[in-house]
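Predict structure. Chain length: 143.
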Amino acid sequence: PPPALLLVPDFPDGGEPGAERLRRQRVCLERLGRPAAPTDVRGTVRVLGGPGPKEVTVRYTFNEWLSFVDVPAAPLPPEPPAERYGFTLCVPPSLREGSALHFAIRYRSPQGEFWDNNGGRNYTLRCCGCPGGGPAAAAPPGP
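Prediction complete.
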């Protein structure tokens, strides 16, 4: 069987975003689900909201930005002073070992448009083979 694939973050996990970074950017990646599943990537975002309508989306690509997809993030219960949003990125089954998923987070409100793009580097998840992998290795034992 082919090896099981994992999406591994290619950026340091800075933990929860600091108040200063959130104040400066107004939007920050909070955390990714661990481990990132080979079929989808889930995460949460913190937003320093203001009055009026707002939109939080995650822009992602599998082909080095030749094309991209914007997916909306859904509101979660807030943790003052920030609002929280959750997102899911669908991973195509054609993703192969060594390929990458790049993403950035956009927040639009009456106050403007704000991005968290990992300091201009974008967030990157690398597709890696799991040692001893294969679909059977990831499945729970049968009865």
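Summary: Confidence is low (pLDDT under 50) at residues 132-143.
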